[in-house]
Amino acid sequence: MVAADGSSGAGAGAGRVVLYVRAGCHLCETGREVVADVTGEAGVVFTEVDIDVSPGTRSLFGELVPAVTVDGILVDHWRIDPVRLRRALAGGA
After folding, report:
1. DSSP state of 64
2. Which of 28, 38, 81, 92 is in Cβ range 3.0-4.6 Å of 66 for a Cys bridge?
3. 9 vs 27, which has greater pLDDT?
4. How far apart are CA 25 and CA 65, in angstroms?
5. 8: which DSSP letter?
6. Which residues are CB-contacts of 90 (< 8 A; sequence separation ≥ 6)?
7. Is 32 within the bounds of a domain?
């Protein structure tokens, strides 16, 4: 898999799980709920990043929000799959 920043692995990012969103995104609300539920079950804290705050982040994700990364690797976008996210957290991304 490719990291969200285009590299091949995790970087020294904000946290283990990062949810990328933007204001006014209805799928982001649903994605936030899924990520909150799954990370809560796993005892992991997630970080939320508004892609419109940084031109670099905005150009990286464009319309692919919400997007979630685990350890810097893109796991899902648009409709966050809880099964896929759980698998990534367990190390089987």
Report:
1. -
2. 28
3. 27
4. 8
5. S
6. none
7. yes
Extract the tokens encoding 91.
Answer: 């190390």
Neighbours of 11 (CB within 10 A): 12
The CATH number of the domain holding residue 32 is 3.40.30.10
Check residue 37 and give left, alpha or beta (phi > 0: left; psi -120 to 50: alpha): alpha
pLDDT tens for residues 42-91?
A: 999 999 999 999 999 999 999 999 999 999 999 999 999 999 999 999 98
| Continuous segment of H or E residues that includes residue 35 | helix 26-42
Note whether residue 25 is domain-resident.
yes
Q: Kindly provide the residue ranges of all beta strands, DSSP E only, lying in the chain, ordered along the sequence.
A: 17-21, 46-50, 67-70, 73-77
